[in-house]
């Protein structure tokens, strides 16, 4: 491991996972990416649908899922089981030696249950500076494996926790930036941060951190994009070399510098 070695942390969201054509296209580009790499996946959409089938209505506040005991069972099965193992099998098929992980495996990501204030989020885990075991994760990379993280962490006392996948990707990127030249790439179903969310040709190519508040108050960024940008700017301020947000099946454009939106400090 050397600081000049390049490491990509790539995150894919639920809308990409739910569309098998997009997912296959993405995994092909992910396979082609040179350098060390880590994949982090969400799957909120699949968990919501399965929960409804099982009679568990989803409750989201500020983009975070209220996770009671039943919901924790569902998200553990969906994220750490169904989605994670399918992605690992698809990557193995393409010759990537992927290893599927939760934060509990190898004690790689230890979270803290979110304290109850006005809202009780249940079994939701928050991350802090020392949450990610970066040395252990480096060893896994140096052994030639490609870690694939689901959105499940643990508290070290036997409790699994549900942690937002964008937050996991950002925390891994920050922790690993001590050891590698780290790029954090958020992949979703749109071409980047858009001026008009319904117009895929309105990509904002660069966003300085100072523009974030204005974009929010103008209503240009809303919903899930707000916590995503928050995580993205946290990463760029904390040692990550570059952060992009763009379309999952355009990842091959990263090397041509034509991929999505670049965030700058
Ligand atoms: N300006 C914007 N540009 C692109 N997407 C936006 C914007 N503002 C809000 N969004 C919404 O944010 C969503 C992405 O957030 P989220 O659903 O949390 O992502 P993910 O699929 O990665 O979990 C998009 O699907 C889109 O509906
Ligand atoms: C606490 C919390 O909200 N966890 C998220 C984890 C999955 C996720 O982040 O999925 P996407 O990236 O597809 O949205 C959730 O259960 O929805």
From TrEMBL:
GO cellular component terms attached to this protein's record: cytoplasm
GO biological process: L-arginine biosynthetic process via ornithine
InterPro entries noted in UniProt: AceGlu_kinase-like_sf, AcgluKinase_fam, ArgB, Asp/Glu/Uridylate_kinase
Sorted UniProt keywords: Amino-acid biosynthesis, Arginine biosynthesis, ATP-binding, Cytoplasm, Kinase, Nucleotide-binding, Transferase
EC number: 2.7.2.8
Pfam families: AA_kinase (PF00696)
GO MF term list: acetylglutamate kinase activity; ATP binding
Positions annotated to bind substrate: 43-44, 65, 162
Domain of life: Bacteria
Residue intervals of the Aspartate/glutamate/uridylate kinase domain: 6-246
Compartments, as annotated in UniProt: Cytoplasm
Pathway: Amino-acid biosynthesis; L-arginine biosynthesis; N(2)-acetyl-L-ornithine from L-glutamate: step 2/4
Catalyzed reactions per annotation: N-acetyl-L-glutamate + ATP = N-acetyl-L-glutamyl 5-phosphate + ADP
Residues the record marks as site: Transition state stabilizer: 11, 228
Family per similarity comment: Belongs to the acetylglutamate kinase family. ArgB subfamily.
Job description of the protein: Catalyzes the ATP-dependent phosphorylation of N-acetyl-L-glutamate.
Name the UniProt record assigns to this protein: Acetylglutamate kinase
Provenance organism: Hufsiella arboris
Gene for this chain: argB
């Amino acid at each position: 491991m050397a600081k000049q070695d390049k490491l990509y942390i790539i995150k894919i969201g639920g809308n990409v996972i739910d569309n098998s054509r997009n997912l296959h296209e993405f995994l092909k580009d992910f396979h082609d990416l040179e350098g060390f790499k880590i994949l982090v996946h969400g799957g909120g959409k699949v968990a919501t649908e399965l929960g409804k089938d099982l009679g568990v209505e989803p409750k989201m506040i500020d983009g975070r899922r209220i996770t009671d005991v039943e919901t924790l069972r569902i998200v553990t099965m969906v994220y750490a089981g169904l989605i994670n193992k399918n992605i690992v099998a698809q990557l193995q098929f393409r010759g990537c030696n992927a290893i599927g992980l939760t934060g509990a495996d190898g004690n790689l990501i230890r979270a803290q249950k979110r304290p109850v204030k006005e809202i009780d989020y249940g079994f939701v885990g928050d991350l802090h500076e020392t949450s990610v075991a970066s040395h252990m994760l480096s060893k896994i990379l140096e052994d030639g494996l490609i870690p694939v993280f689901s959105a499940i962490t643990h508290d070290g006392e036997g409790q699994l926790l549900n942690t937002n996948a964008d937050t996991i990707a950002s925390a891994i990127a920050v922790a690993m930036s001590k050891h590698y030249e780290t790029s954090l790439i958020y992949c979703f179903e749109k071409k980047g941060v858009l001026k008009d969310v319904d117009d895929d040709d309105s990509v904002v190519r660069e966003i300085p951190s100072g523009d974030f508040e204005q974009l929010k108050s103008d209503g240009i960024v809303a919903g899930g994009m707000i916590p995503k940008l928050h995580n993205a700017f946290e990463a760029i301020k904390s040692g990550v070399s570059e952060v992009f947000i763009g379309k999952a099946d355009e990842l091959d454009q990263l090397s041509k510098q034509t991929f999505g939106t670049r965030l700058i400090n």
